[in-house]
């Protein structure tokens, strides 16, 4: 944490707002479905200290990765080995009042670092195109001796073989709770749809903090319709059951029938002797 003692005393993300006070947001963002996500008791100093710890962990991981890269070079693997470095999700860290992650597609969670080094690559370059996380596997395998295991479609999806102008998102459930969301993000606009919640539409040029949901803005009706059509075309191509309608459990409810307002008890399934 001492690495980041220089954070301003009033440090907060630009799009911080007390949790659950934003308007025009989906129901899925309206309650702490897990106790650890309830940040209403945190004050500004708590958020600053949380950021210090988080940034410190990031620096620690960066240092470990640097050690790994240097070891690759020491072992003479640079010309024969490709590597990738990424994460499974980002961190809200106070954005919109949230901690960790959740059933939403905000940039803080979905736009994550991605580094790839091809075997023998001499110089770095930056590619600002759109990629999906699932295509990382065929990208790496395609440059290896195991490329033959890939299907033709997987090979075609590898980074570098395509030039996407958008990314698609999917969210279904977490620890048994149901949150069905699908989304699409282009350079300027981001659209999210749910079969049991409201739509979201953000203009990232004018609202990079995604504070204002403009899904009901008549001036963007054509953009919303276009993005929804594009999203559903992708869903149908992926044989996504949500593209075909049907009943969905209420937001946040459990697949075993428990309601959304019931908190998960990790102890209830343990052997009684272990609870003591």
Summarize the structure.
The protein is of the alpha+beta class.
List the main descriptive attributes of the protein structure presented here.
single chain; 276 residues; Arylsulfatase, C-terminal domain; 4-stranded antiparallel β-sheet; 6 helices; 6 strands
List strands and helices in order, with pairings:
Layout: H1 44-74, E1 83-86, H2 107-110, E2 114-117, H3 136-142, H4 152-156, E3 167-174, E4 177-185, E5 189-193, E6 200-203, H5 221-237, H6 272-275
Antiparallel strand pairs: 1-2, 3-4, 4-5, 5-6
Shape: globular
What structural category characterises the helix and strand content?
alpha+beta
Return residue spans where pLDDT drops below 50 for at least 5 consecutive residues: none
Mean pLDDT: 92
Number of strands: 6
Please tally the helical runs, counting DSSP H or I stretches of 4 or more residues.
6
H-E string: HEHEHHEEEEHH
